[in-house]
Amino acid sequence: MTMAGELVLAAVATLLASLLALVLSHFLPLLLNPKAPKGSFGWPLLGETLRFLTPHASNTLGGFLEDHCSRYGQVFKSHLFCTPTVVSCDQDLNHFILQNEERLFQCSYPRPIHGILGKSSMLVVLGEDHKRLRNLALALVTSTKLKPSYLGDIEKIALHVVGAWRRHDDGGGVRVVAFCEEARKFAFSVIVKQVLGLSPEEPVTARILEDFLAFMKGLISFPLYIPGTPYAKAVQARERISNTVKGIIEERRSAGSCNKGDYLDVLLSSNELSDEEKVSFVLDSLLGGYETTSLLISMVVYFLGQSAQDLDLVKREHDSIRSNKGKEECLTSEDYKKMEYTQQVINEALRCGNIVKFVHRKALKDVKYKEYLIPSGWKVLPVFSAVHLNPSLHGNAQQFQPCRWEGTSQGTSKRFTPFGGGPRLCPGSELAKVEAAFFLHHLVLNYRWRIDGDDIPMAYPYVEFQRGLPIEIEPTSPESDCPEASAAACSSVSSTPERKGKVLGAYT
Question: What is the pLDDT at residue 215?
Fold first, then answer.
């Protein structure tokens, strides 16, 4: 036999072996684990992944979950992301999974995600590495809440964003803005300021944002590294952002005693992290502070745009807060604590909008839970949206009703996990709520709005508004009454002893 013939036979044998392995990996779990939950595996290799990822309104379960829950119950097996999977729509099992991180279950995002986020990302690292990075994140969040300049920075940037709508008015009073873009602009400006000490006007900020947008578009895309694909662009964008951050780190080190009081100062003073981990930490902070916060603000504006009654209640609350302050006096942590109905609106937007639909875990060993057996090595998907939209847990679950949160602690619980839970609970969740509340304060006091057209939040499974949530906005007060002039005061008032005392008193 010729060399060419041998190569062909080897290639055919390899292909057949691969196909056999795929078939066995698909069907063997069905035969070897008869006690696993009921369900179906679908097609070999693909399984039921495409049906699971079919876009649907984020305030609904989607056809796949509705069909499977009705056929198999709230816990069922499937074949998703190329592996046998147990899907949980049960609040108790979800809680059990989240609380047993690293004991019975482990974070297990698809391998292509690692290629974009990087091997040192807090979202994908495991065990002690994750614990170390998360402790640092919690320390930074705590220091941010205590930092007097934080609330001033948020308000200054919020005033800058909403004030720009007046400056660009064509004279007709009403104009259309792509609100998702405005929310992202606000959220990115806040997190870049807190993490890297950069203002929105600096050229490097615009460069980071441009790369970050490419990074976000490819974060959940078909993992094909071919030049021009969203996945390839995302990997390349991450490399550019990493190089930019490394350049900022070198500049900061060469400056010696330069202290901007941001996350980067804390990271540079730490000897526990490598430079690669510091860069990944910055990227994780940008990702968490950008996407979640901007989506939350967009969700609040969307749902309030559907309910004139709730919008009126929010406006009354903020009118009351503003009436007790001077025209250019900035918001304080005491004001934030008075935004009780606003907090109910934020929680209800999180419940209905389901920014995080599910998370990826895998079983580290055979796990018996009630009548279910979760086999070792299987992927496990706790679906938060199924619990949030369960009518037996939330009356009139499909309706936006902020009053349902009145008198509750409004924290995370088995039936409300918008930011995950357990050791991987999002460390910046409270910061996102503060930023949303402050932005909403200046929005409702200065504008009325309505949704322009029919745009709804869609789960892909990540959530986005297909048209960017265009809204028609109209100022509610003369331009002379716009509080944008107080932006400068908000950026400097944080240094006064009185404001510092108020901020510290609210969080201790």
Answer: 83
Tokens of 229: 């694909």
Which stretches of 407-456 are assigned E, i.e. beta strand? Answer: 447-451
Q: 144 and 415 in contact (C-beta within 8 Å)?
A: no
Q: Over the Cα atoms of the chain, what is R_g?
A: 25
pLDDT at 15 > cutoff 90: no
Q: 453 with 282: CB under 8 angstroms?
A: no
Give the pLDDT mean for 257-273. 77
Query: Do 61 and 69 touch, CB atoms closer than 8 A?
Result: yes
Return the structure tokens found at 408: 């509750």
Q: Cβ–Cβ contacts within 10 Å for residue 276, how many?
A: 13
90 pLDDT higher than 90: yes
> In 10 A of CB 34, how many CB atoms?
7
- Picking from 286, 154, 275, 267, the residue whose alpha carbon sits closest to that of residue 211 is 286
pLDDT tier, 462 (very low <50, low <70, confident <90, very high otherwise): confident
- CA pair distance 347, 433, nearest whole angstrom: 9
Mean per-residue pLDDT, 478-487: 54
Per the listing, tokens 């990944």 go with 280
Strand partners, 474: 448
